[in-house]
Amino acid sequence: MTGEERRYEFTEIKAIRGTELNTITRKQQEGWDLVTQQEGRLRTTMTFRRPKPKPPWRLWASLGAAGVILAAIFTVGALLEDDSDASTTDTVAASSVERSSGQPAWERESEPSSVADPMICDARPGKDPCKFGQTAIYSDTVRSGDLKLEITVGAPVEFTLSENAIIAYDRPPQPVSAYFPVTVKNTSPDLVAVSSMLTQAINAEQGAYGGIREVSDGDVESFAVSGAIRMPVGESLSVKEGWNMTTLEGIEYSLSIDGQAGYTVKFTR
Q1: What is the predicted pLDDT for the residue at 75?
Q2: Which residues, listed in sequence order, are joined to residue 241 by a DSSP beta bridge?
Q3: pLDDT of res. 108
Q4: Residue 110, H or E segment
Q5: Gap between the Cα atoms of 35 and 28, Å rounded
């Protein structure tokens, strides 16, 4: 690893042609510098970098030492507690719970727990990816209000390219063409400004940037989900978003909303 890689972090953004200046301005306000810019037929790929923050090793070391001391104090205190006091506390707590519920504890434990809807997916950062066919609940607070979306992505459907098909960047066709049935519904309480909706298909062989290309062919469209950016509250958009690739092995679909101001929702098999 070189010194340059140690000192900088990099990010790559794909912007629709004509919106590059807005993207560059926004990233510069966040502390990023434009490194490269490659124009395609429909999108421009831009690479940005910014200095990596130095890790606060001394602060973490101090906090760790303080944590060890506190843990030792709490352990000694727990050992010195009277066993009879602990038993009394447990009895009082159990009685209090029974009174508040109106049922004995053993009866409550026998009740079946509520089961979450298997077709609804928690799309928040840190959660597992959604499965194809599930509906992801996207929720975020932005400057213009609360943004709430319901995003459903079905499993990819293979199709044969016609002679009128258009592949992004005018690249030659690869063996597999498929579209994702995508529905986005705006459930926000008020109209909220969304700056971008960028999608990407990923497979086990090519990854995210190994040559997978958007494709348009008849009712299959490329960049189709971006039409939901200014969608009115309560309305929905259903599209077939097309991609051309080498294989569907390990296929994934991701939808990034509002760039780094928002977060990415992923769907897998």
Answers
A1: 58
A2: 180, 221
A3: 43
A4: helix 105-110
A5: 11
